[in-house]
Amino acid sequence: MSSTKEKLKKVKFLLNTKRIFDQKLWDIKQLIHTFTNKNNKISDYTISFGITCKGRLWQLKKTLLKNIQDNSDYEKCNFVLIDYNSKDGLEKWINKNFRKYIQSNKLVYYKNSTFENFQMAHAKNISHRLADGEIIVNLDGDNYTGKGFAAFVNQEFKKTKNIILVSNRGNGSNGRIGMLKENFFGIRGYDEAFKRNYCEETDLVNRLKRKYSLCEIKIPDRFLNHLLNEVKNYENEKYQKDLDEKIAKNTKLFKKHNFEWTTDNVNQKGYGKGIFVKNFKEKIILK
Length: 287
Known about the structure:
Elements: H1 2-36, E1 47-53, H2 57-70, E2 77-84, H3 90-97, H4 99-103, E3 107-112, H5 120-130, E4 135-138, H6 149-159, E5 163-167, E6 177-180, H7 181-186, H8 200-212, E7 215-219, H9 237-258, E8 274-278, E9 282-286
Parallel strand pairs: 1-2, 1-4, 2-3, 5-7
Antiparallel strand pairs: 3-8, 4-6, 5-6, 8-9
Helix pairs in contact: 1-9, 8-9
């Protein structure tokens, strides 16, 4: 377990070394924006929150409705839920409890019935490709948005489009990333060469910043509450060995991307592929 923590610390160090410089650059850009866009009126953005789930129904039972309600003040947002072939009754639960939200387009539900092992980067790419918002925000199933989060996102992007929203914590909300959808497509999404859920967020942020000269905006603490994960598999030696190997491989990939200027080698054969049923009736194919 100690080796895992050491590797994660190295990854965090690589990210943190750039943050001071990025903040200074952001301050300068904000001053420029204030003087050049004083009288420029910008319409509110459409925003989609992407949620992925496989075997985490217990989390969504606590967070999904709460998150929808906490953002009801912002009309131009919705939640895109990807059922990654979950076997815990997720489809039945959504069908029973969220019909009115599906009818109003506040919730869009996509079900896949063939995926086996959960791959985080692949799942996130699916949710972002299927989102219809101009701004897309990844939202882990165990996260609470807090009241008014969509309005906050809109407010920040109306100041300037040259930003990316990131969590200011490393406590379970580090997957909270908000970006323009066009920028997400421009870098071809999360790198699906990463396995499990290690490094893909940091890699995505770095590639976005490099290609579009974006500045990080830290999401305030009031929007970053979450459930405590209950993962018991760490007690299993075989699982831990596999986890160490995956983290080592992902860390190597991350370092490679971190020092390359282009991302032309990412997801060359496509990303976020799959076959889905939208809202229990419409077949959708992502190629």
